[in-house]
């Protein structure tokens, strides 16, 4: 499908806490027309407007759609996505791609075999602070990157019932880290804990190493009264600190002024230099994500999160949970690493 003048007939399945936002953004995005909605649980947020709320994915497909957005609970991702692939519908699935990496592989393979655009909704990649950081890293402004550390903490989200903090939140950090570094994960090690009385974990500390040698750290929980969304990329020339909640990017440069304090001067490291907070355009990440999906379907862009990348992220997430359960580091299989190419 090509041609910038085409308007995509969009379908949306899942009208919950994320689906309602997707409905709004699809309606606001040029080149997209929301023509069908589906949710067996109805329209709790009242987003349907003049559209009938359809009961299932089959009814959505029957409405004659070009592309679809899947925002149902994770456990249903595979069945819904496979039905859309079989019907020839380009699809973006909210993260994670499926409930398990094996299910994700089946979904990714189905879209590849059908020659369809298949994307995964990792909206953090569209955060203005991270977009700017990635551009500057790619331009060599940090020199060699040594470490990427993320912190994603805050109160428990009432919208979550089917997964723990690893598959709900840490999956964002795994995806954005591999994307920033342009390298897949090679190994992970993690610890989790259960403090809220639920079946799923609510805190995780994970470390790892990427294929290109960058070391990473992820601190994630939903039991903190202080909400924090921060990514720190440290390299040979300084560090970028991305506050993804505010969309701000700050650069902390290595110092260039020599010290005369003997005890510090003897340490062969870096010192504090200039600090710059960049003035950057701040567009709504969800809108950028929808535009990227539209452009991929129309053949005018390639900035989506591919399903192969979605599978790699889920493989890493499962490695984190395996490491936490066994107390051992998990080394990813070559096939899972090779699925992501920068």
UniProtKB/TrEMBL annotation:
Key words, A-Z: NAD
Molecular functions (GO terms): nucleotide binding
Family annotation (SUPFAM superfamilies): Glyceraldehyde-3-phosphate dehydrogenase-like, C-terminal domain (SSF55347), NAD(P)-binding Rossmann-fold domains (SSF51735)
InterPro entries: Gfo/Idh/MocA-like_OxRdtase_N, Gfo/Idh/MocA_Oxidoreductases, GFO_IDH_MocA-like_dom, NAD(P)-bd_dom_sf
Domain GFO/IDH/MocA-like oxidoreductase: 131-240
Gfo/Idh/MocA-like oxidoreductase N-terminal domain sequence ranges: 8-122
One Pfam family cited in the UniProt record for this chain: GFO_IDH_MocA_C3
Protein name: Gfo/Idh/MocA family oxidoreductase
Organism: Georgenia ruanii
């Amino acid at each position: 499908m090509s041609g910038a003048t085409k308007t995509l007939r969009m379908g949306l399945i899942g009208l919950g806490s994320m689906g309602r936002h997707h409905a709004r953004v699809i309606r606001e995005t040029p080149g997209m027309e929301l023509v069908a909605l589906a949710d067996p649980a109805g329209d709790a947020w009242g987003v349907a407007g003049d559209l009938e709320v359809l009961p299932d994915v089959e009814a959505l497909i029957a409405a004659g759609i070009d592309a679809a957005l899947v925002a149902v609970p994770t456990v249903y991702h595979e069945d819904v996505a496979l039905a859309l692939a079989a019907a020839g519908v380009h699809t973006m699935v909210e993260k994670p791609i499926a409930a398990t990496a094996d299910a994700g592989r089946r979904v990714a393979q189905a879209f590849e075999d059908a020659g369809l655009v298949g994307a995964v909704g990792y909206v953090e990649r569209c955060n203005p602070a991270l977009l700017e950081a990635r551009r500057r890293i790619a331009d060599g402004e940090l020199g060699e990157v040594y470490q990427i550390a993320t912190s994603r903490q805050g109160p428990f989200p009432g919208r979550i019932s089917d997964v723990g903090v690893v598959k709900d939140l840490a999956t964002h950090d795994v995806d954005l880290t591999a994307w920033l570094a342009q390298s897949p994960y090679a190994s992970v090690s993690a610890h989790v804990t259960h403090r809220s009385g639920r079946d799923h974990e609510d805190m995780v500390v994970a470390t790892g190493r990427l294929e290109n040698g960058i070391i990473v750290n992820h601190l994630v929980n939903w039991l903190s009264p202080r909400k924090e969304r921060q990514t720190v990329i440290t390299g040979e020339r300084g560090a970028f600190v991305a506050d993804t909640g505010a969309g701000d990017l700050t650069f902390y440069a290595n110092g260039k002024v020599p010290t005369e304090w003997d005890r510090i001067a003897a340490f062969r490291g870096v010192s504090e230099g200039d600090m710059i907070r960049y003035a950057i355009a701040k567009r709504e990440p969800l809108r950028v994500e929808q535009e990227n999906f539209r452009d991929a379907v129309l053949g005018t862009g390639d900035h989506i999160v591919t399903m192969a990348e979605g599978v790699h992220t889920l493989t890493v997430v499962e490695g984190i949970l395996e490491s936490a359960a066994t107390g051992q580091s998990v080394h990813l299989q070559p096939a899972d690493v090779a699925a992501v190419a920068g």
